[in-house]
Amino acid sequence: MPQIDLTLPDDIDSTVERALAEDIGDGDRNAALADDGLQAKARVIVRENAILSGAPWFERSFTALDERVRVDWLADDGQRIHSNTPVCEITGPVRALLSGERTALNFLQLLSGVASCTFDFVERVKGTNTQIIDTRKTLPGLRSAQRYAVRCGGGVNHRFGLFDAILIKENHIMAAGSIETAVAKAREIAAGQFVQVEIETLEELEQALEAGCDGVLLDNLASHVLARAVNMADAHRRRFRRDIVIEASGDISLRNVREVADTGVDRISIGGLTKHIRATDFSMRMHTD
What we know:
The protein is of the alpha/beta class. The protein contains ten helices and twelve strands. The strands form three sheets. The chain has a six-stranded parallel beta sheet. It has a four-stranded antiparallel beta sheet with strand order 3-5-1-12, covered by helices on one side. A two-stranded antiparallel sheet has the order 2-4.
């Protein structure tokens, strides 16, 4: 795999705290069945081939309950892990291990699922110059975590939210009156930010290019139309000596993603990376000395 960006988001602690509060509430009656002070060891096994992601969230789910918990990782985030192999070993007070187990595994199975799905798409477009990117179709409150998981799988992040870039869609164009007006207003209110226009026809593409946008999102276009759109954008690049990011989206699957990449688009955005999640299967087995 190419070098991946494992920069951690700054909201891990708050995300884990919310998850623990949701599960534990005013106290874990189940963990109270174990003697206070009893120490335990545990091992986490992955039950299928996957890409590991979520180690910092997993680990914090225990240390937030008791700083004495120690997690020793046998694999790193972004690494391929194989069925029925251990990924980490945990030691610490048994009550903390019991209370944190479900929350920790929830993070690990979710984020590894996202990373593994992303990896599959990235593998399909290998050999092209096309990037696989995410969207804002994330689980509420878990966007930064899921974006990290996309990177673990070799994908690239799109804009984080509505504040750090502008994507002009059909309803925005309707409200503004035209593509040209929408782009001009975007330049006024968000100078210096990336301005992208979603288009559904080649006529709209021509309007977006003439309006001077930074990128176009080609939504649900057939491959032969995508290829024509790429040629149009390339001609615009050469004529005006300015870069235009060409992105494809809509009804992208493992079956057709290579065909889309072969049209020459710069990137393919896939909402399913973070929306249609198949969790990776992990199990945690504990024992006391």
